[in-house]
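Q: I have 407 residues here and want to know how they pack in 3D. Can you give me a structure?
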Amino acid sequence: MNEWKAVAIFGLTYVLISGRRLKVLPLNRPAAALLGAVLMVAGGVLTPAQAYRAVNYDTLVLLLGMMLIAAYLHLAGFFEWAAEQILRRAGTPHRLLLYVMLTAAGLSALLVNDTVCLLLTPLVVAVIVRGRLPLLPYLLALATSANIGSVATLVGNPQNMIIGQMAGLSFARFAAALTPVAVVGLALNYAVLRVGCRRMLREAKIDLGRATGAVPALDGKLAALTGSVLALVMAGFVAGWNLPWTALAGAALLMVLARRDTHGVLKLVDWHLLVFFAALFIVVEGLHGTGLPDRWRPGLGASATAQAWNLTWLAVVGSNIFSNVPFVLVAGRWMSGFADPELMWQVLALATTLAGNLTLLGSVANLIVVESARGHLEVGFWDYAKFGIPITVVTTLAGTALLVLGQ
């Protein structure tokens, strides 16, 4: 009986999550996940104690630490300052496209990609409007590059954080394997966007004579302090220190040294995202407790190479049906049965991240960018998909090939 209850609650939760993304049902993603978690306990699938144990607190602490560090960069005016500098140094629309991509990817490798998109989108819009340029190519560049850049490290996006905690992967080894994937992916992304947007960019010229408002001054001291702490945190990651508590220690150090009202800092944390993940852990644990995910593990071949390629496309499809984080939570249970578990963890991170570029609904980062720019440009599903589909296919093919050849 509990098995069917777990399946029904799991199914209802993901219908509600997908329904919010498609604007069919009123519950948002955190509320839908929270409802699912409560139903798992109320229905007797899990006890309250089992529900508490299901939450991966390491992932939540890591997310919290990185969000707090990003909040201090925001308070310092770093993102506004960086956007203005990019515009003034770009010179040409094509070079500006490249700079937007490199900025989004670089920041997303160090901070959570959703947070980077949330902070950068209004600034990129202001830059593009100020320069009298077409918005669509730069919005696409921001969203897709943030997703691609985030694949490089264990702190680039939430699913990578979960993978790092579930697998116990080394930050340095993961970055060494996935950074080349991000670099090649960015190159391919630039090529696709430059060719696909050539008509829009052909006649465009950057016009610095039209200002749309003063850019806030950079708080140099706070920016330097935050940058120094972030560098220390990254050094700790590479040295093999505990990822969640290294990030949180960096955030706590900033709170002590920055001398800013911490009320304002804490308001910048995306608490909705933390609630979403905490509840989702409970929902997936309820399903896992039935043993169904283990019994449903697909046959993906005998060799490590075959398993890697088959998992790649299964993860791309699964991430776009169920969303990447839920898919990771289920697929992560399969890893010990594969020929090369470390390679498969890397493939899972690659595929679930790059799958986010497939459609407008594939990644929270995409929705953040499009919704934030809605006052200036309406981006439709197919406006995005005609670029997102080829970007996803070529970057995923190239990235998986790099991982397989490097094993």
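Q: Anything worth noting?
A: The chain has a mean pLDDT of 85. Residues 104 and 146 are 5 Å apart (CA to CA).
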